[in-house]
Amino acid sequence: MKQTLSKFALGISALALVFTVGAAPVEAASLKLSGDEIADAVEHGKAHHDQDSTAFRFAYINNLGYGYPNVLLRTEYLAVADYVRRSEYQRSYGSQKVHKLTDERIESARREVDGKLQFQVKVYGPSEDFMEGYDFHLMAGDKHIMPTDIDKPVVADHSGFKGKLAYAATIIVDFPTADLKGDETVRLVLDPPNGMGPSGNRDANFEAPFDLSKVK
Question: 156 with 168: CB under 8 angstroms?
Answer without folding.
Answer: yes
